[in-house]
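P.,

For your records, the input lines for the assembly:
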Amino acid sequence: MSIYDERINQLRVLMRDKNIDAYIVCTQDFHSSEYVGDYFKAREYLSGFTGSAGTLVITYNKAALWTDGRYYLQAEEQLSVSNIELMKMGQKNVDTIEEYLTKSFDDRIKQSSDVGHNSYNDLEELHNHQDKFIIGFDGRTVNNNFVQHLKSKIKLNISIYADEDLVEAVWKDRPLLSAKPVWELDFGYTGRMREEKLETLREEMKKTDSDICILASLDDIAWLLNLRGNDIQYNPVFLSYMIIGMNHAVLYANEVIFSDEIKEKLELAQITIKSYNDIYMDITKIDSNKNVLVDYNKVNYRLVHLIPSKCKIQNIQSPIMRMKAVKNSIECDNIRKAHLKDGIAVTKFMYWLKMNIGKIKITELSAAKKLEELRANQEGYIGASFAPIMAYGKHGAIVHYSATEESNVKLEKKGFLLSDTGGHYLEGTTDITRTYVLGELKNEEKTAFTLVLRGNLNLASARFKYGVTGANLDILARQPLWENGLDYNHGTGHGVGYVLNVHEGPNCIGWQIKSDRTNNTVLEEGMVTSNEPGFYLTDEFGIRHENLILCKMLSETEYGKFMGFETLTLVPFDLEGIDKTLLSNKEIDWLNKYHQYVYKMLAPYFEGEELKWLQMTTKII
Amino acid sequence: MSIYDERINQLRVLMRDKNIDAYIVCTQDFHSSEYVGDYFKAREYLSGFTGSAGTLVITYNKAALWTDGRYYLQAEEQLSVSNIELMKMGQKNVDTIEEYLTKSFDDRIKQSSDVGHNSYNDLEELHNHQDKFIIGFDGRTVNNNFVQHLKSKIKLNISIYADEDLVEAVWKDRPLLSAKPVWELDFGYTGRMREEKLETLREEMKKTDSDICILASLDDIAWLLNLRGNDIQYNPVFLSYMIIGMNHAVLYANEVIFSDEIKEKLELAQITIKSYNDIYMDITKIDSNKNVLVDYNKVNYRLVHLIPSKCKIQNIQSPIMRMKAVKNSIECDNIRKAHLKDGIAVTKFMYWLKMNIGKIKITELSAAKKLEELRANQEGYIGASFAPIMAYGKHGAIVHYSATEESNVKLEKKGFLLSDTGGHYLEGTTDITRTYVLGELKNEEKTAFTLVLRGNLNLASARFKYGVTGANLDILARQPLWENGLDYNHGTGHGVGYVLNVHEGPNCIGWQIKSDRTNNTVLEEGMVTSNEPGFYLTDEFGIRHENLILCKMLSETEYGKFMGFETLTLVPFDLEGIDKTLLSNKEIDWLNKYHQYVYKMLAPYFEGEELKWLQMTTKII
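Structure tokens returned:
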């Protein structure tokens, strides 16, 4: 028996103690963070599966793990040592978690009936519930929708036990919760004092008649307080919650992470620091005559359910989402500086790559290391904003590819290198994809490169009326591909935080109306969004061209306010990939103007051969 | 005192009898029809205002009428003889109906308080309700949303009295309900038997666990039964309701409108005919254990509220909306024939116009008459599908302009004639707008003509993935205008019925997400939608280019199903309006291909000078 089966059996003992029929272990932390710290890797501890997405379900006699197409192979291998069944999400005839649980409970009912009335009574006694099944999970690791979904899809009599993390007792050497020091982002970077932000938040609360606002999103809290941390990889945030009232607020976090200076400043802003876990007690003490603003998509299930039932709940999008998405003018000026630094680093990487390919040994990992070094040379560089994607050849077709020692390959003087990377600078966060031509290309590669580029240029040059959403604009990026029966299976753009999460709502660009209402978000002046159409031919190659674009008001006429985008990213598109005959005159103009601007901005930082190369690389076509 | 004030005073007597504090008279019939018969013109009878949109509100001491910008002038004039106040909807500082009623009720409370406690008691006795206000209206002329809106916006204690049409007793010489003969549309036109349609409907009902379906939309019923009538101007439908069960259905209508043959056929399909008004009694007798499918947007408030409260209601979009929107292959073949006939008529009109402008006296009305004659020459022509818009010069900028004897002007040999007209043929319904160049144009006119045309061509040539909605596509039509800070203040496209309403849901094209979910409708193969971008410069000119487009599946690749449009309308765009330098090569190609196709289709029906002219008019540019 593998250690994973042993660990699961230990958990089953606890399940029986508490009459829990099925226990679900999710991948999330308590804040729906994109990345999670080691403390939160309970699913990995129990199953051995290390992927970034997956859900483990344990019943008395079985265990199964759901994951998506990115992880089929990895999960197959990692689960092979245990009795955990792999459930390939999205494949036909694979049960959902709800279907699996329904069948499992149905089987139990049948078995009980089969073995006669007496035995049924035993079971009944054992569980102390008549055909009622208890599903357990740590309510801090899921949101309300998860639970509603379970309840609506499982047509049996079920109840939920979400008050306890059973893994805690099983996992003896569990890592501690991260508690890295918090640092302050100065006014020169944030452009707004925390007092001012709190005041704006309270005005938003008043608009919805709310007395109290609960925050659990780490980037919401970091933005509001002008503080940054280091508890989540790639996201400079710190583990915390907040309860904000009209005159006073409480920040729940490990006190050791704050310097005395920061503590004093928080006190001045009428913010008290209490222990990270205290919120679970304090939330139960909210006056029942209060109106509580809480975004069910952002605040975990257990917190939501601890709010006194007499409180009036305003379940609406956290006002901070929109507040932090709309960058102020100081942030915008900074972001331009960050993109200049990033543009220098990435363009120098492009030069290094073009000069050395076929001459020295370059691998996916060494290329990523080189780019990281070039970024680190820039003043104010903090670190990578997400796990770098440096994908050569057919690896480029794997949308979430991240090179490992095992997968790492040497770059040859042919085909594409798809490089999707980003950095945090004090002046803002970048996210850029370039597809570099390393040598000869097939015709279909050049065609696809050009079609994807057309989508990028058409979205970048869009002019639209105020009120437009990402769902209205998406077709501009996809039309060149759709005209040719091609497509990419991801959104066209996501919002980007300011020294925060590189994936930030609510703004996004995508054609399918999402249930979480985010692509109904009106694009406001000051929002930064990615523009990243792509094309992927499985086992052959992948192409993506990504710039960040800043939404701006361009003119107001009697027909309305008209908006457009400023492209922030300052790195040439690889001209060697372009089939000019496929571009319209308007597209050629736009590309030339972009390259002229990139040259103008970068040239002061280049000299000699490198400058000559830059000139060639941004030439008029 | 005008007759209108007298009529309103008569109504106030009834209001006092029934303790109704405010009575609302709407413009709708009992079926939310776009046009209403004379019987339903209660608002016109009481106010003298003849516009197609307006709501009259009567309190004990005041009366006010709300209408929109199209009717400000007309309403001002028509209301000048009475004491009815004009409320210009959409203008700043103009109260909504709800605000008006709130203030009116507030005043009553204040007055009562001012005159002392005794008087307040008198009022209380008079109304037999303590500060509770009763709002009355004919519940058959509004839908549930109207009532919900009233209740949510008026923050006072109100109740609704919707069971009676008070106007009935006041309006002595009220016209009778229309009762025109019903006729059958043969299988060769409909492509599906009514029995088959009923079966499909019942399958859709089963999917939502519904036992009974209530229908009140006249086009839904006409489509389902393959019957047409003549009770509503421009819409070949007949006054009726239906209650449909799993094995049997009841059609509520005036029996005299059915021939014996049709009655027999309905009987064969297990459909019983009962009196039009009987539904209001029968609906109360529905078994309380039944699940009732009823679309609150389509079935009037009174009917909805007569459904026994124990019935489980499925308030979803009527399944027939989608069924009739997706035209079957026989309908599609017919529709192409209808467009050929319409194309011949409209193109001959264009020839007549071009040859005679400046030579004989042509007015807006005489031009409309000429076009109607040319359509009537076509076999199978039934009549106009909506009130023709023949708008010369600055009239073109009035989006809903319809020439009257008073407004009628003579066409000069300059500027634009905007002609938006359509016909019903046995083979289908058409809707076409052309903007004809009558002589010299200003540069801005030519530019605007070309920009609007670009929008039309770009939407017509769109290729898109299955699942796309009108909200995703709209920008293709608007982008050329938006790029120049211009726009049009209406949707880009509406669904079109088959010998039914020319405005038919649920498909439509528009960028703003509507609350009634219609532009979230996925465009399905077989849907016919209009493609009609425009531009309007107030007091100067108007431009609109409208074709009908049929959604089709074009290819299926590993990236999905790809869709596009077939343009159905067969009439040249006026080349004299085009500034070719503004068109892209792709747009020029598309225009040339369209004109070649129009020529090929129409040429067999033209000869001599007319044919030569057609050749010139559709020439390659």
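Two observations worth noting. Chain B is about 35% helix and 20% strand. The radius of gyration of chain B is 26 Å.

Regards
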